[in-house]
Design brief:
The complex is a heterodimer.
Chain A: H1 12-21, H2 35-46, H3 69-93, H4 97-109, H5 117-130, H6 135-143, H7 146-151, H8 165-174, H9 183-192, E1 196-198, E2 204-206, E3 216-218, E4 221-223, H10 227-235, H11 238-252, H12 260-272, H13 277-285, H14 303-314, E5 317-318, H15 322-331, H16 353-367, E6 397-398, H17 401-407, H18 412-423, H19 430-440, H20 446-458
Antiparallel strand pairs in A: 1-2, 3-4, 5-6
Helix pairs in contact in A: 3-5, 5-6, 8-9, 9-10, 11-12, 12-13, 16-20, 17-20, 18-20, 19-20
Chain B: H1 3-18, H2 25-28, E1 41-48, E2 57-58, H3 63-68, E3 79-81, E4 87-89, H4 93-100, E5 104-111, H5 119-128, H6 140-148, E6 157-159, E7 176-177, H7 181-188, H8 191-198, H9 208-230, H10 243-256, E8 263-269, H11 277-301, E9 308-314, E10 334-340, E11 346-347, E12 366-367, H12 368-379, H13 385-388
Parallel strand pairs in B: 1-8, 1-9, 5-11, 5-12, 6-7, 6-8
Antiparallel strand pairs in B: 2-4, 3-4, 5-10, 9-10
Classes of the chains: A mainly alpha, B alpha/beta.
Chain lengths: ~475, ~400
């Protein structure tokens, strides 16, 4: 570890930028003192996708013999967890937090599950490659993505016996939003997507013999539409721009407090730009309203964000990476396993009495090995072999507290103030500050003091917010 | 360097903050019960993984059963006959005792249109009480709380677990996960949390931070209520020494203690029997039936059984035909048990039709939301339509 620099509190705007566009300020300090250079830097790196590669492409597809089937499923499950951890690690160490944050957004938006690890990885990389460009290209790529086609049953969508699942979700959840299309539109769109499938090599394949070549009428237009035509028609409707813009604004700014006029004007220019995602993000991050103080500290961190912020803020790393799987399950956000195609909960949906208590106990569990025997739910699937721990589990986050203590070396009051400004998006109450100080004051040395101060602030309800 | 001022802080602040730890009066309001349905209780038991219904309630008189299941069909010495058509798996011996006393009702062929064979998706559908093409992020018990729980506590619906299922999450009110009241009490009453929850008048009421503090304060208050109440009654009934047995014991003790909870929820997993089902399923069914029997015995001993209805379900049944690994794969419609003194007992509808199948799967006859609707309307005395999201026939099993 490098020699400690005396820590200085970054400006509020920089902190906010890190919280919202990334996953919290890393302990090593912000890379820049102003948001526009951060935005440039993160913007530049985002256009160079950093792909995930922990899963190797399987060689020639062979069906395992029945007695090896269980073993094969367990291997898949393990590879999915390996992929999950590779992504968690990339989010922790990335030079482009924005790319990860946006990939996480699309991972939730184009919510999908697959048992095939290579397809899961391929889809995640598709989100990285197209996630900052034109939304139509992203939509097209995801719609032809094998994991999605499989998840939404488009392999079963054939001329004469259409399966409407894919057509329905494309409109309801990925583009137009509920209420902007009819059941008739779904039936007709499903016909246009007939024959969209994939081959054993995990590549899109158009089965022309299964495709319905008859005329379709879709949202007032008639023609022999292909699947591509349908997606294009959907993109031509500004309601799609509005749906995507609103969701992006809610993700980065506030679930609850959304200014409709603002969304209206952003979505108009998003539409004008031909759905340029990067342009939309740039417009948001360079605006003044984005940094309005009322937003800071009023957004509930998703479990992924909570786990990353605690690692970033301390520069710590889990001794046993499996802990990250355990906590993702316990908090209810296991990456690559969204609850349904609608994606994960949002905002207050993350919080109930047990999840809050566990989230607030997290620092005690990982810094002080205070085990509480908590168990995550099992999902009923025999193949999701126990991802919990056998015997004594090790949930420790390894943190160089001496280094942090040196960097935060001040008088007690100043250390507390500094830690608070660093860790919390918005100050807590005087009473809480005093409570934390008094608890930390029982320490025997500076390192322990700092550790207790960090533990205290990170155990507050305020730490659940960014 | 740090020590001096730290000690100062200790003197000036610690006692000052911990001294004001009285729970504010309005928090006490959270201990109010739900009024509708007087003191009735619903217990929902979830069999996770997709229990094989055909080897649970066995159509032993049907030749097709033996034809589809050359290896897995239960022989005469492994079943307990209920009627000319149906029998229980031997492992459900204890459930049969309750059946004989007229406390068990069985519905066959319960499911929903366009069934989904994925565990997580079908469980999502059952827990949210939605159609298979809808995505709803609240649960049916959660919506019951939303409609009834004005000023009452999260403990009005308790799941015996460490985490809360979607079923118990409403839009504005969420139930509470409690695996062990004493453990929850110790966790929630940690001085740090208790102090934090004692005063949050300074945070802005409109903001998320207030929502978090409110949830925390409610947790502290409810865990205290549940724990102090739970000490009132300790059961003398012997429950099986299984994890599920312990969970039902917790339910029995909370009810015996007079906690004003209206809905309890607990799950038993291990029913995903793709391989070597025989033996595995019996072990799970026995775990289930033995624990339920103990719970009923306990409830009878405290005179609470008549205010309780137990409903069991699984996210789907399994294929009619066995697979090549001595197991069964994911299927569709399934049977469901209702247990109580005030329900219609016996076999409540037609036996499964093994002739007319849909892709080798049973075709459902009763939408599970009709069962929910009936329990809500006739047992919990609430208007069910907004809770199950639609009109589903209310049945007459209560």
């Amino acid at each position: 570890m490098s020699s400690p620099m005396p820590f200085s509190i970054p400006g509020d705007k920089v902190k906010y930028f890190y919280n919202r566009v990334g996953f919290g300020i890393p302990f090593r300090g912000p890379k820049s003192k102003n948001t526009s250079s951060l935005q440039n830097e993160w913007g530049n790196t985002s256009s160079k996708p950093q792909l995930l590669s922990s899963v190797e492409k399987p060689v020639a597809k062979e069906h395992p013999a029945p007695e090896k089937f269980k073993e094969a499923l367990q291997k898949s499950r393990q590879d999915l967890m390996k992929l999950n951890l590779a992504w968690m690690e990339q989010m922790r160490t990335t030079v482009s937090p924005l790319q990860e944050k946006m990939t996480l957004f699309w991972h939730d938006h184009f919510s999908c599950r697959t048992r095939i690890p290579y397809l899961a990885q391929q889809q995640n990389n598709t989100l990285r490659i197209f996630g900052f460009g034109k939304f139509e290209e992203l939509l097209m790529a995801v719609s032809k993505d094998p994991a999605m086609l499989q998840f939404l049953n488009n392999q079963q969508n054939k001329k004469g016996s259409p399966n409407e699942n894919f057509a329905r979700e494309v409109m309801e959840l990925f583009t137009l939003g509920r209420g902007n299309y009819s059941e008739h539109d779904i039936r007709e769109a499903a016909r246009a997507f007939t024959g969209w499938g994939f081959n054993g090599g995990g590549e899109f394949q158009f089965h022309s013999r299964q495709h319905d070549e008859e005329e379709k009428s879709f949202r007032g237009k008639t023609g022999n539409f292909s699947g591509e035509d349908i997606l294009h028609l959907i993109i031509e409707d500004p309601k799609t721009a509005h749906f995507i813009t609103k969701k992006i604004v809610r993700y980065f700014v506030s679930q609850e407090d959304v200014n409709p006029e603002l969304v209206e004007s952003l979505s108009a220019s998003f539409f004008q730009s031909g759905y340029d995602v990067e342009g939309l993000l740039h417009q948001i991050f360079s605006s003044d309203w984005f940094y309005e103080t009322r937003y800071a500290g009023n957004r509930i961190k998703s479990p992924t964000e909570l786990l990353l912020s605690i690692q970033n803020h301390t520069g710590g790393k889990f001794e046993n990476a499996q802990s990250l799987i355990f906590f993702q399950r316990a908090f209810g956000q296991l990456l690559f396993f969204p609850p349904n195609v609608g994606g994960w909960p949002k905002g207050q949906g993350w919080i109930d009495s047990s999840s809050l208590l566990l989230r607030m106990s997290l620092p005690q569990m990982i810094f002080h090995r205070q085990e509480n025997g908590f168990e995550a739910k099992d999902d009923g699937d025999v193949n999701s072999i126990n991802e919990s721990f056998h015997g004594k589990r090790n949930l420790s986050l390894v943190v160089d507290w001496e280094n942090i203590a040196r960097s935060f070396s001040r008088s007690a009051n100043e250390t507390v103030e500094l830690a608070e400004a660093f860790l919390l998006a918005r100050p807590t109450t005087k009473v809480n500050r005093e409570l934390i100080t008094s608890m930390a004051s029982k320490s025997t040395d500076d390192t322990e003091f700092v550790k207790k101060v960090f533990t205290g602030f990170m155990s507050l309800p305020e730490y659940q917010l960014c | 360097m740090m020590n001096l001022s730290r000690r100062d802080f200790l003197k000036t602040s610690l006692l000052a903050t911990t001294g004001s730890m009285l729970v504010p009066r309005f928090l006490k309001a959270w201990e109010n019960p739900i009024q509708r349905g007087s003191d009735r209780i619903l217990i929902v038991l979830q069999l996770s993984g997709g229990n094989d219904g055909l080897n649970t309630v066995v159509p032993y008189h049907n030749d097709l059963y033996y034809k589809w299941r050359p290896k897995l069909a239960l022989p005469p010495d492994k079943i307990i006959k209920l009627s000319d058509e149906l029998a229980l798996n031997n492992a459900l011996e204890k459930l049969h005792l309750l059946y004989d006393r007229g406390h068990v009702g069985i519905f066959n062929n319960v499911g929903y249109p366009n069934p989904d064979r994925s565990h997580f998706r079908s469980m999502d559908i059952w827990q949210s009480a939605s159609g298979s093409a809808e995505y709803v992020n609240t649960g049916w018990i959660g919506r019951y709380l939303d409609s009834q729980c004005d000023g009452c506590g999260a403990h009005s619906a308790i799941e015996i677990d460490d985490t809360l299922s979607l079923a118990l999450k409403g839009a504005s009110v969420k139930g509470m996960a409690v695996k062990d009241p004493a453990k929850l009490y110790r966790a929630a009453q940690a001085p740090f949390f208790k102090t934090l929850s004692s005063d949050f008048s300074l945070v802005h009421p409109e903001e998320n931070v207030a929502y978090l503090y409110k949830t925390l304060a409610e947790t502290v208050s409810n865990s205290d209520y549940i724990y102090s109440k739970s000490k009132v009654y300790q059961t003398k009934t012997e429950y099986p020494d299984t994890d599920f047995g312990k969970r039902l014991k917790t339910i029995g003790e909370l009810i015996g203690s007079g906690v004003n909870t209206r809905v309890y929820y607990a799950a038993l997993s291990g029913f995903d029997t793709h391989v070597r089902q025989s033996g595995t399923q019996e072990r799970q069914l026995k775990t289930f039936a033995d624990a339920v029997y103990a719970l009923v015995t306990d409830l009878e001993s405290t005179n609470n059984f008549e205010r309780v209805v137990i409903m069991t379900f699984s996210e789907f049944g399994r294929r009619v035909s066995e697979n090549a690994s001595g197991g069964t794969d994911h299927g569709t419609a399934n049977n469901l048990f209702l247990i109580g003194k005030k329900i219609s007992a016996g076999i409540l509808n037609e036996t499964p039709n093994l002739q007319d199948l849909d892709n080798n799967d049973l075709i459902f006859q009763i939408d599970f939301r009709s069962i929910y609707a009936t329990l809500l309307r006739k047992w919990l005395s609430v208007d069910e339509e907004n809770i199950v999201n639609g009109k589903f026939p209310v049945l007459d099993f209560i």
